[in-house]
Amino acid sequence: MAAEKRDIYQHVTDQIIGQIEAGTPPWRQPWTGGQSGVHFPVRHNGEEYRGINVLMLWATAARKGYVSARWMTYRQAQELGGQLRKGEKSAIVVKYGTIEREGEDGEERSIPYCRAYRVFNADQIEGLPEACYIRPDPPRDLGTTADPALDAFVRATGAVIITTEEPRAYYDLARDHIHMPPIGTFFSASGYYGTLAHELTHWTGADARLARIRRFADRKTYAFEELVAEIGACMLGVRLGVEPQFDQSGAYVESWLAALKEDKRAIFRAASEAQKALDFIMAQAGKETEAAA
Known about the structure:
GO terms for molecular function: single-stranded DNA binding. This protein is of the alpha+beta class. The protein folds into 2 domains: 8-132, no CATH class; 148-284, no CATH class. Helix content is 39%, strand content 14%. The chain has helices at residues 8-21, 52-64, 74-79, 148-157, 189-203, 212-215, 221-240, 250-262, 266-284, and strands at 71-72, 83-84, 91-102, 108-121, 125-126, 161-163, 170-172, 177-180. Mean pLDDT is 85; it is low at 1-5, 32-36 and 289-293.
């Protein structure tokens, strides 16, 4: 697998900036067009991709109309007995690692690197074992009634949920609780749980948990934290089979774009923090996520 020589951070950031400016950020992609099901993209061996790779492959799947969750390199497809169809184009994923280098003082140091690789969706490959052609289910249609299983999941996280008639959903950092309007005031139950997923992601950022909000205080916290919550809400929604709700106001989009244009690694950090938030929520609820590379 040959590594990409371009600046992968800038390449991915430019792609995502373009998608946000077009009104189609990649964390919205799993439901666009009604063809793609709800799933996390997985490698040839069934391990889930994580962080920025999830966003990149969601965007490619939505743009190309792929419905399978499985991705692999050309060589991996051959090893599984598959044959890439003529003219098919690859997607980019990234791999993180470290290399040991000697510094000027003679001490060995671990230098992090980010390398790009090319992968193909199973829908682009013929002759693979049937198990490779994953056909996920669409999001659950919850109607307007509460879902006991989702309510139980939220309770299991330990998050304190306060419900009043105040027509706002938010996480109160000082009091460490989530406020939600009554479920009956939402147009659909999926809207309620999607909004709650956004606030749960904020909840993970408190000092008593992942301490994310304080750690990123010098990086335009509000815009960055909202970006993390948007991505985290989508990841949690996919995990639970519920379409999340997004609040893409003009102010949010403008602040996200400013942050991404100033720092080409910001979207990588946001995706990483969203993944950590998802892992924390699932662990708290007793449903550990797979720790795939």
